[in-house]
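chain below, 378 aa
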Amino acid sequence: MSRFVFTLVLGVLLFHVPSSNWAQETSSLGEIAQEPEPGSDLVSDPLPEVRGNQYTHPVYNFGLKLPTEDWKFVVDPQAINDFNPDALLVLTAPSFDLYSMVIVEKFPEASIENYAERVKPTLESLERESVSSLTIDGLPAYRQVWEGAYDGVPMRFHYTLIAKEEFRFQIVSWCAKSSWSYGVDNQFDSIGLGFTDLGPVVLPKEPQWTPPPIIGPSDVYSNNRSNFSIARPSNHWTFVTDREEVDMINPDATMAVHRDEEIFSMVIIETLPELSLSEFTGRVSPSLEDAALLGEEETTIHGLAARKRHWRGKFDDIRFDFFYTLIANGDDRIQIVSWCPTSMINDNFRNQIRYIEESFEPLVVPSPDADSTPPSVD
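prediction:
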């Protein structure tokens, strides 16, 4: 799902976590942390800690506490993922069907008020019941309460939104209306107000990315119908080839590849023999507000003439960088388009995008007599 959309995913919000997944006493989360895969270009985050009714996160440097003894922290990564893949932490009172979770996004350009306008639950008949600005432990904050229905069930959602440095925190608490009371509202409020700022955010430094020494079969996507192959920089990138999923990114794309649904690259192929590469380049640009061309170069990709262009602009008030590699291959005009929020740009990102661009390679078209079987798409 593209991060152009900032709505809450509601797929399994009424999921009940087995009691074996709760942590109430002092515990380290090291036992359930996964080791990085060999060859990973990621650094494992320092582990959060639960001590009784207190939770602390050493990277985003914040604390939370349980509102009553009926609540427990959910610390198992898979259980958290079952609630919402974007969640960092989940709290729940299982006996009362009350839930809460924390989501963190890097979103430096949005004030807390603007961020509040982007974040809302995906509910039928959605109505905002209340809204207020406040300060929580010296940080700008915003609270809003929503009501609506999910799959026909009336629901109530409390959002406490907090701005800390470049990051925006969502503390989202919810229950079915049948479980709601003013005492529940007080507990939801208490969770948000219990947010404690423990110091600056300390993100682990990502090591310098280097091209993989060995490219395995799963790291290369080949399309015999469109006559090309392309490689991914590491196993942290995911190929998108299902037609419905590709259409959600761009209906004109043949395929895409992404990292964490935040950094994207896609291939678009058009048959345009009447346009030279120069003319084609002049017609292609991102649909961004205040789009500015920051750089351009002529090059070759596997012997084919190519142009590279770097654009920057805004989409829905978020600043993005777009990288275009435009290639002429016979009558075909090819776009390799990569993008991510400007706030995420770094040398590692740029080097990995360049790796994707320069891995593009046309395949040899078989003779029609060589095989009577129609070409397949891998």
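The CA atoms of residues 49 and 56 lie 5 Å apart. DSSP finds six helices and 23 strands in the chain.
thats it, cya
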